[in-house]
Amino acid sequence: DHLRQPLQPEQFQKRSMRGASQMVAAEIEANSAKVVAKAFDGISSLLGRFQQRLQDVSEAAFTQGAADTVQRARRDKGQQGPPAEGAPASEHKH
């Protein structure tokens, strides 16, 4: 049968080509896994920064909104800022 026959040069070449292409395929696979991992790290770091930025912005907006609400409440009460000097004692908050 053909297994016992010595390999012909072209068969040997085919076999070594197949081995080489398998090695190349394995290398490509390993590299693309690294590339995907690196890309994923980059994306998740971007997302993390984006999330932090959103949090900062919403906290700032909340703080500003609270300040506006307090000012509006004071305005509605007819009171701009802290009570003026000489205001009735009931106006002073101790």
Count every helix, treating DSSP H or I runs of 4 or more residues as helices.
Answer: 1
**Class by SSE composition:** mainly alpha
- The total of beta strands comes to 0
Largest sheet: none
Provide the number of structural domains. 1
Residue share in helix:
over 70%
Which spans have pLDDT < 50 for at least 5 consecutive residues?
none
Please state the overall shape, judged from the principal axes of the Cα atoms. rod-shaped
Region (Disordered): 65-94
Explain what the structure shows.
The chain is mostly helical. The chain has one domain (11-76). Helices cover 72% and strands 0% of the residues. The chain has one helix spanning 9-76. The chain is rod-shaped and about 115 Å long. The termini are far apart. Residues 65-94 are annotated as: Disordered.
Structure summary:
The chain has one helix at about 10-75. The protein is mainly α and about 90 residues long.
Which short descriptors sum up this protein?
94 residues, mainly alpha
